[in-house]
Amino acid sequence: MNAIGRHRGLARIWAGEPGLRGVFSAVSHTDIGKRFIIASAIFFAIAGVLAMLIRAQLATSHSAFVGPEAYAQIFTMHGSIMMFLFAIPMLEGVAIYLLPKLLGSRDLAFPRLTALGWWCYLFGGSIMVGSLLVGLAPNAGWFLYPPLSGPEYTPGVNSDVWLLGVTFVEISAMCAAIEIVVTILKFRAKGMRLDRMPIYAWYILATAGMMIFGFPPLILGSILLEIERAFGWPFFDPELGGSPLLWQHLFWLFGHPEVYIIFLPAAGAISTIIPVMARTKLIGYGAIVASVMALAFLSFGLWVHHMFTTGIPHMALGFFSAASVLVAIPTSIQIFAWLGTLWAGRPKLELPMLYLLGFFFVFILGGLTGVMLAIVPFNQQAHDTAFVTAHLHYVLAGGFVFPMLAAAYYWMPHVTGRLRVMRIGEAAFWLIFIGFNITFFGMHLTGLLGMPRRVYTYPAEAGWDWLNLVSSIGGFLQAFGFALFALDIALQAWLGRPARRNPWGAGTLEWTMMTPPPAYNFASLPEVECREPLGARGTLAADLARGEGLLAAPRNGWRETLAVDIASGKPDHVAILPGPSLLPVAAAASFGGFFAMMLLSLYWIAPLFLVAVTVVIWLWASTNGSREPVGPLEIGDGTTVPSHYEAQGTVGYWGSVFALCASGTLFGSLIFGFAYLWTVAPHWPPQTGLDAPLFETGLIVAGALAAAIFVRLALPRTGNGEGRLYLAIAGMGLTLLVLASLPVLRLPAPTDHAFGAVSTTLVAYGLFHAMVATLILAFMMVRKRQGFVAHGRPQEMRVATLWVDYAAGTAIVVALVLVLAAWGV
Amino acid sequence: MDPAGPSAAAIADLWWWMLAGSVLLSGLVFVILFLAFRRAGRAERSDAPSEKLWLGWLGLAMPVVVLLALLTYALHLGGRILPGPDAPDLTVEVTAYNWGWSFRYPDGRVSERVLHIPADAKIDLVISATDVIHSFWVPRLAGKMDAIPGHVNELRIEADRPGTFAGVCAEYCGIGHVDHDFQVIAHDGESWQDFLENRE
Amino acid sequence: MPLLRLSAGLTLWAIGFCAIYAVHGLGCALGWPNETVGPFELHRASMIALWACFTLAGIWLALVLGRYRGSAMDRASMLLAWAGAGTTLVSGLPIVLVPACL
Ligand SMILES: [Cu+2]
C-alpha cells in the first residue's frame, strides 16, 4: 500500500460524520481541542470586556458609570470567567489538541469522554454567561464566601448560577483530567519510556494529576453550599453549628493548586518552545521533572495563605507560610533552567520568543510579589487590596497568558498549516506588554496606599485618582493589543501562505505529521529511542507517511492505536477506539437538564434528569466490548499483542482508578469537613445526639464484604458464575438498603444542626456509590448473558470489581465514622 | 505607607527589605536574559552548559538561602506582633455588621463607627461579626483581621501618636461594602481622660 | 513503578504536614497547651516528635532511593525525596519559633 492509499484508508476510518450531525457527534481530539481553545478565547474576550467596564468605572473617583450591584456582578464574573471558563478550558484545549500528537498516538484514551467534557463546558459556560445578560449573575466575589453568598444574604438565584455552572464546568475538567492522565500513561509511542517523554507531557501529567486531587474539594464545597441554599442544611451557618470558614478551606484547598494547575501547562509550553528558539536542548530534564513534581505536591500545602487574616493561630499560618515560601524554589529551578538553555544556545528573537521575554518580565515580578505575600505580617497588611489584584494579574498573565500567546504563534503553523501574514504580532505584543504593565504596575502602589479590592468607587481625597486613571488607560491599550492579536491569528488562518513542515526546526513528534493534521495524526506510529525523535532522524516524517512505523495498515475499519506498558513504553496492546457518537451530547444535555431544574428550584423534576444520565451512560457502556474472541494482532514490527478486549490494565481500568481517586478525595474532604466543624465551629456538640448504629454497621459490613468477595468469585475463569454475581448484588443491595434507612430511622434532622447535615451527607455519599456499584453489577449480569464478559475477556468484570470494592470500602468507613461520632457526641 | 504604629512600622520595614531583594533578583534575571541574547550572535559556545551552575547554584542554592533568611525573620516578626503574652492596656469588642461597626468598651459603653483608643498603649481588639464576613483594617496601624460570624478573632493595635486614622472593611460584604468604613481616634492622655469620663 | 518512587518523598511530606497541622488544630481546640507530660508541654512536644519522625523518615527514604542509580527518573526520585525531607524540616520550623495557639 502506498502513502496515498494509506492516507485514504485511514482518513475514511477516522473521519467525522458529515453535516450538522457531525457537529454534535465529533469525538476527534483535534476537533474538540480546537473547540475548547476557540470557546475559551471567546470567554476571555467576554471577561476582558467586563474588565474594561471595571477600569472605566474606576478611572475617576465618584464615577457614576455603574452602580454597586452591577459592579458586584461585573467583578465576580470577570474573575469567575477568567478562572473557570478561560484559563482551565484553554489549558485543557491545548493539551487535548497536542498530547496525542506529541506522544505518538492517534487519539486520546477516551474520545467520547473528550466530547462529553466539551459539551459540559459549553452548556455550563453558557448558563453562567447567560445569567450576566439577564442581570442575575453571581455577585459575591469569585470565591463566593458564605454567609454573603448564602441563602440569607443572596436570596436570588445569583449564587446558584455560580455553584451549578461552575460544578457543571468542573465535570468537564474532571473528564479532561482523567483522560489526560490515562493517555499519558498508556497511549505513547513504542519505546517512549517515561524519561523519554516530551517535557510538556510531564507538565501536563502533573497538572492533570493535580486536577484529580484539587478539584473535588471545590466540587464538594459547591454541593454543600447549594444544598444549604436549596434545602437549608446549615453547613456554613454558625448559628446552627456550621462555619463560614469551612467554605474557605474547601475553596482554597482547590484554589491554590488551581494557580499551579494554570501555570504548569504554560510552563510546559515554555520548556518546549525555548530550546527550539535557542536551537539547542533543554538543560536539566531530570531536574525539571523533579521540580514539576515538587510544585504539584507543594501547591497543596499552601491553601491557608489565602486565609492569613481569618484568625487562624500564628503557628498554623507559619506552616503554610513556610510551604508557600518553599514553593518558589522549584519555580526558580525552572526559570534558571530556561535561562541556562538560552545562554547555552543561539537564541533567535522569533515572535514566540518575544512573547516569552514578556513572560519572563511579568512573571518574575509576579513571583517576587508572591513571595512577599507568603510572608504572614506583610500579607495581613496587603491582603484584599489592589496589591493582591496586581500580584495575581502579574502571576496569571505572566504565567499563563504570555506563554499561551507564545504557544499560539508557535503552534499556529501546525494547526492551520500556514505562516503569518504581516508583522501584526509584534505590534500586538508591544501593546499588550506595555498596556499590561501600565495597568497593573501602579496597582501595587494603589494597594499599598490602602485601596481595597472590589470597591466600585473611592473618595477623591484618598489621592488614588491619577494612579487609577493611568491603570485604566493601560487597560484600554491592552485591550487594543488583544484585538490585534485576534486579528493576526484570524488573518493567518485565512490568508497565510502554506508553511513547510516543521518551520521552527523542532525535534518533537507533532511536527512529523502533515499540517494541518489529518484526523488520524500518524499514518504509521513512530518508534522512539530518545526525547527528540524528529531531531534525531530528519526523515522520520516521510518514513512514517510511507508506513515504516507501527499499525500502518488499516484493519477492519478499526480506529487503532497503540497502548504501551506504563514505565517501559513496550507495546502492550492495541486499543480500538470508538467513532463518532451522539451519546456525549445526550449525556451533557441530561446533566444540563438537571442543573437547569436545580437552578429553577424544580427539585422534584431534577432527579428525573439524573435517571436520564444513568440511561445514557448505560447505553454508552453497552457499545463497548466484543462478543467474540479477537485474538492477537500484528502491529507491524513482527510481533503481536492482544486487542484491548483481551488485555489487562487497559485504559478503561486506569480511567476507573483515577475517577475513584477523585471521588475518594471528595470523600476525604467531607470527612475533613466533619472533623473541622466538630473542632472549630460554634455550638458543638449538638443538642440532639445519635445512638451508635451498631446493628446497622454490622449489616453494612457484612453486605459490603459479601459483595467484594462474590464479585471476585464471579470473575470469568471457569463457568459463568451468574449465581455468584447474584450474591454480590444481594450483598451490595443489603448495604444500600441499610444505608438508606439511616437518615430515616437514626440520624438527627439535617436542617437542625450541621451535625445532622454532615452525617446525612456522608450517608448519601456512601449510598451514591452503593447505587453505582449495584447498577454496575446488574450491568455485568447483562454483559455476561450477552457474551461480552467471558473467559479471556474479563476486563469489564475487573473494572466492576474496582467500583464494588470502592463502594464497599466507603460504606464501611461511613458506618464507622457514624459510630465514632455517636460515641463522641 | 505612612505607618503610625509599631506593627505597621515593622511591616513597612519588612516591605522595604523585600522590595530591595526583589529588585536585585529580578535585575539579575533580566541581565542574564539580555546577555544571553547579546552573546547569541558571536561567542563560541562551550557545548555543555553547566547544570551545576545554573540549576544547583542559581536555581536551588541561591533561593534557599534568601528564602530561609526571610522566612525565619518573618516568623519571628509575626510572633512579636501577636496579642499577648503581655497584657493589653485596653480590650475593646468590635462587632461588624451590614454596614456599620460598633465598639464596646470594658465599662459597657458602645460607640458606633468611631473607635476611641489612648495613644501609646497596647489595645487588643476582639473582633466578630453578626451577618457576613467583614475585615477590620486600619492601614496605618496594623494588618487586617477578619470579622467572621460565629468566630472571635483578636488583633493588637497600637498608635504611637495621637491622631485620627481611617479604617475600612477589607472583605467584600455586599453592596454597602464601599462605605463600610470607620475611624480610629487615638487620644493623648488628657482627651482620653475626657473620653473615659464621658465628656465627649 | 517509577511514578510511585517519584511521588514517595513528597507524599511523605504531605502526610507529615497534615499530621502536624491536625495535631496543632486539635491541640488548640482541646486546650492541650496547658497540659504537661513531665517537663514538657504536651502539645509542643507531640508536634516536635511528629516533626522529627517525619524528617528522619524522609531522610531514610532519600537514602534508600539514592541506591537506585540508572535512569533520569531514579535521580529525580532521589532529588524529590531530599526535597520532601527538606520541606518537612523547614515547614516544621514554626513549631519551635512561634507561640502555639495565638
Ligand atoms: Cu464589610
UniProtKB/TrEMBL annotation, chain A:
The chain crosses the membrane at residues 36-54, 74-99, 119-141, 161-187, 199-225, 245-270, 282-304, 316-342, 354-378, 390-412, 424-446, 466-491, 574-596, 602-621, 653-678, 698-715, 724-742, 762-782, 803-823. GO terms for cellular component: plasma membrane. SUPFAM superfamilies: Cytochrome c oxidase subunit I-like, Cytochrome c oxidase subunit III-like. It is found in: Cell membrane. Residues 8-529 form the Cytochrome oxidase subunit I profile domain. PROSITE patterns: COX1, COX1_CUB. Signal peptide: none annotated. One of its GO terms (biological process) is oxidative phosphorylation. It is a multi-pass membrane protein. Keywords: Cell membrane, Copper, Electron transport, Heme, Iron, Membrane, Metal-binding, Oxidoreductase, Respiratory chain, Translocase, Transmembrane, Transmembrane helix, Transport. It is an enzyme of class 7 (translocase). Pfam families: COX1. InterPro entries: Cyt_c_oxase-like_su1_dom, Cyt_c_oxase-like_su1_sf, Cyt_C_Oxase_1, Cyt_c_Oxase_su1_BS, Cyt_c_oxidase_su1_bac, Cyt_c_oxidase_su3-like_sf. Belongs to the heme-copper respiratory oxidase family. This is cytochrome-c oxidase. The lineage of its organism: Bacteria, Pseudomonadati, Pseudomonadota, Alphaproteobacteria, Hyphomicrobiales.
UniProtKB/TrEMBL annotation, chain B:
GO terms for molecular function: copper ion binding; cytochrome-c oxidase activity; oxidoreductase activity. This is Cytochrome aa3 subunit 2. Coiled coil: none annotated. Residues 87-198 form the Cytochrome oxidase subunit II copper A binding domain. Its main location: membrane. Keywords: Copper, Electron transport, Membrane, Metal-binding, Oxidoreductase, Respiratory chain, Transmembrane, Transmembrane helix, Transport. It comes from the Bacteria. PANTHER family: CYTOCHROME C OXIDASE SUBUNIT 2 (PTHR22888:SF9), CYTOCHROME C OXIDASE, SUBUNIT II (PTHR22888). It catalyses: 4 Fe(II)-[cytochrome c] + O2 + 8 H(+)(in) = 4 Fe(III)-[cytochrome c] + 2 H2O + 4 H(+)(out). The chain crosses the membrane at residues 15-37, 53-75. Subunits I and II form the functional core of the enzyme complex. Electrons originating in cytochrome c are transferred via heme a and Cu(A) to the binuclear center formed by heme a3 and Cu(B). InterPro entries: CcO_II (IPR045187), CcO_II-like_C (IPR002429), Cupredoxin (IPR008972), Cyt_c_oxidase_su2 (IPR014222), Cyt_c_oxidase_su2_TM_sf (IPR036257). Gene3D superfamilies: 1.10.287.90, Cupredoxins - blue copper proteins (2.60.40.420). Belongs to the cytochrome c oxidase subunit 2 family. It is a multi-pass membrane protein. It is found in: Membrane. GO terms for cellular component: membrane. GO terms for biological process: ATP synthesis coupled electron transport.
